[in-house]
Design brief:
Blueprint (H helix, E strand, L loop, with lengths): L8 E19 L5 E20 L4 E5 L8 H9 L8 E6 L10 H14 L6 H11 L3 H6 L3 E6 L3 E4 L6 E8 L5 H12 L7 H16 L5 E2 L5 H7 L2 H11 L4 E4 L6 E6 L3 H6 L6 E7 L10 E4 L1
Helix pairs in contact: 1-2, 1-3, 2-3
Length: 301
């Protein structure tokens, strides 16, 4: 992007992600955690409206954002790469904060991608800005559909996307803060995490093969899941619903709180058969998860 036309308003699609697996393999001296995770991109789950302004303004509609909006941080870091005019950014939020889908990171990645445009000469600088913005941002900034992500989120190994599958994403009436979740994880495991980097990589490869071959997987591996299920046993009720509806895999994304289920094809039968518990505040069906075409079926309480 070389400049923003006066009064022009740009509409940017904003992606999110599912963690099909999530293993924490270590903690660095600076407090950051190393992970090994299969990331699956969810295209166009939210929308940004952007126009030039006299000063930066970032407003989220549809959800309350505590503290500094990550898009504000992205704008600040973008200015370390190139000149960026003051912008008015309005975000139409459809994903509840604290859900583990990285929707806020998707907002930041959307604005960084738009600002970067075809600036290949500064590609390393833009990737660095993405990482400094947040650990989920590099994957969403990359545009890759599916990847094995490691390090603190900066190592992205693209994978061939799965054959068409659909997903139900369910938002319960509780949320989980990422920072507190990692602190809780350290307490649970005493920093002796279940799998080493090598073992977690092997597990992710085997899981990728099973998903590709259409095998029934059941509960997907996530180091946060045992503690979350103990704290919120209603997850088990959801997982039983997913299994009865014909899902071949299900789990909790990121550090929670959203749960999800994967179905072969478009999963239309599942959309007709699931009756959600009263504590489910939103259920969203994505059709299919690995292409730019996305269904828009929602039920909200």
């Amino acid at each position: 992007m070389t400049g923003v036309a006066p009064q022009a308003r740009f509409i940017l699609p904003s992606a999110a992600k599912l963690n099909l697996s999530l293993r924490v393999t270590g903690k660095r001296g600076n407090g950051y955690h190393d992970i090994m995770s299969l990331f699956l991109r969810l295209p166009s789950v939210e929308t940004l409206w952007v126009s030039e302004s006299g000063s930066d303004s970032v407003c989220a509609r549809g959800a309350e954002i505590a503290g500094e909006n990550i898009v504000t941080r992205a704008l600040r870091l973008a200015r370390s790469v190139r000149h960026v005019p003051f912008l008015d950014v309005e975000i139409l939020k459809t994903v509840h904060p604290g859900s583990g889908l990285g929707a806020g990171s998707g907002n930041a990645a959307a604005i960084l991608n738009w600002l970067a445009g075809d600036d290949e000469l500064q590609s390393i600088a833009w990737r660095d800005a993405a990482l400094k913005t947040g650990s989920d941002v590099p994957f969403l900034f990359s545009g890759v559909s599916m990847a094995l992500v490691s390090g603190i989120g900066e190592v992205i190994e693209p994978l061939e996307p799965l054959e068409e599958i659909s997903a139900w994403i369910v938002f319960p009436d509780w949320s989980v803060g990422t920072e507190n979740a990692y602190a809780q994880l350290d307490e649970w495991y005493g920093e002796a995490y279940p799998l080493s980097e090598t073992a977690a990589r092997a597990e992710a490869g085997d899981l990728r093969r099973k998903l590709r071959d259409g095998e029934d997987v059941g509960l997907l591996p996530n180091d946060f899941a045992p503690g979350l299920i103990k704290k919120f046993p209603k997850y088990n009720e959801l997982f039983a619903l997913f299994e009865r509806a014909g899902a071949f895999a299900w789990g909790i994304t990121g550090s929670g709180a959203a749960a999800f289920a994967l179905f072969h094809g478009h999963g239309k039968a599942a959309s007709l058969s699931i009756r959600w518990p009263a504590w489910v505040r939103q259920a969203r069906q994505i059709l299919p998860v690995n292409t730019s075409r996305e269904g828009a079926s929602e039920a909200a309480r």
